[in-house]
Amino acid sequence: MKLQTPFIEELLAKVKFDDKGLVPAILQDAENGEILMFAFMNRDSLKKSLETGLATYWSRSRNSLWVKGESSGHTQEIREVYYDCDHDCLLFKIKQNVAACHTGYRSCFFNKIEDGRVVEVGEKMFEEKDVYRKKD
Fold first, then answer.
1. Is the pLDDT of residue 52 over 70?
2. How many domains, in total, are found in the chain?
3. What is the pLDDT of residue 132?
4. What's the sign of the alpha-carbon dihedral 113, 122, 104, 66?
5. Is residue 29 a part of any domain in this protein?
6. Less packed terminus of the chain by CB within 10 Å, N or C?
C-alpha cells in the first residue's frame, strides 16, 4: 500500500504526535489478526512508511529511522492503516515476511502469563545468531 503525497500530508496533519514527536504503532498480521509488535513512529518514519509501503519506525535507542527488515530481510508490507478515535495511536495491518521479533519469534508477544508463571508461546522462526551476524 503506497499513498500519494497530497493524501499523506493530510494524514500527517491529523495524527497527534506526543511531546517527543512520537506516535505508538501496533502491527497486526493482515491475514490472521495476530498482534506482531509495537513500535514508535515519528513524522518522517510515518511518511516514509506511507510512501514506500514498508513499515519504517523511529528507533529511540539508536535515535534514527529504522526500516523493519533492513538487516534481516524480514520486512513488513503495509496492507491497511488505521488511527484511533483520538488520532494518537496507529494500527497497521501488514504482511510479515518471516518474523517480526528480533529474537526469532513470529510475534514479539511470545511471553504469556499463565497460572502465575511466564510461559513462552508462539513460533520461533529463526535463531538470532544466524540472522544478525557481527560485523568485523
1. yes
2. 1
3. 79
4. negative
5. yes
6. C
pTM of the entire structure? 0.90
Element housing 113 (H / E): strand 111-114
Amino acid identity, position 100: A
Residue 68's CATH number: 3.10.20.810
The candidate with the shortest Cα–Cα distance to 19, out of 66, 90, 92, 88, is: 88
DSSP string, 3-21: --HHHHHHHHHHS---TTS
Q: What cell was used for 28?
A: 497486526
Q: Residue type at 123?
A: E
What single letter denotes the amino acid at residue 106? R
Q: Looking at the domain assignment, is residue 132 inside a domain?
A: no
The per-residue pLDDT for 94 is: 98
Dist CA 24 CA 22 (whole Å) = 7
Three-state DSSP at 45 gives helix
